[in-house]
Amino acid sequence: MKTIGLIGGMSWESTRVYYELVNRGVQARLGGLHSARVILSSLDFAPIAALQRDARWHEAGELLAREAERLERAGADIVALATNTMHKCADQVIAALSVPFLHIADPLIARLRAEGRKCPLLLGTRFTMEDRFILDRLEAAGLQPSVPDAEDRAAVHGIIYDELCKGIVSQAAQAAAKKWVSVAAAGGADSVILGCTEICLLIAPGSVELPVYDTAAIHAEALVDYALR
After folding, report:
1. Which domains does the chain have, with CATH numbers?
2. Which among 148, 217, 219 is positioned nearest to 177, based on CA atoms?
């Protein structure tokens, strides 16, 4: 079994989900008392969130690259970021590594294409929905992603940072999520991407009218595939 190097803590709520999914995936495939070989670097999210707010992305990327190097030196055979937003810095992380890096969008795209989805709604932080680091990758794969309007993008972003990152799931947020998906479906969306690793706390499969693609779950499954390959 190969060793997974995971950079988490952004937030720890979603990293907890990753750790569970990876271990359950290994146990399901190998049985018995098997669990995943994981080296986890769980960062303090507050300084990173401050770098995000101040658009100091290069500094954030340098920090993540150093963590990636530490994981490789510790024996990781593959490295992943347990966060969508910080994939804005993925190129810096990749440049620091000699082992593979699994980009969160790649297994997502493979799943969407395999299941015939073409027009996904992307929900995530403001950075993920408004910057091009995920959208460009989706479009390069022939997909036609959409995002909510400006007012709803601000609402999504606020719910992520003010509630989900703190483990809070309010009824108001759940109602808002259903509205975002309903509006997108009326506009032609055929699926919804949970493009923030915390949104799985808010939107579960079957809770909205479109098929749900949880980036954290798909990413974790791909990491298990690699570890057991």
Report:
1. 4-103+217-228 (3.40.50.1860), 105-214 (3.40.50.1860)
2. 148
Q: Which residue has the tokens 């720890």?
A: 12
DSSP codes, 79-147: EEES-SGGGGGHHHHHHH-SS-B--THHHHHHHHHHTT---EEEE--HHHHHSSTTHHHHHHTT---B-
pLDDT digits (tens, 9 = 90+) for 193-228: 999 988 888 998 888 999 999 999 999 999 999 999
d(CA 16, CA 107): 20
pLDDT tens for each residue of 53-62: 999 999 999 9
- Structure tokens that stand for 202 in this block: 């808010």
Residue 170, φ and ψ in degrees, nearest 5: -90, 155
Give me the catalytic one of 15, 83, 128, 215.
83
Strands 4-8 and 78-81: parallel
Determine the average pLDDT of the residues in 122-135.
Answer: 95
119 tagged catalytic = no
| Options 15, 85, 165, 196, the catalytic residue | 196
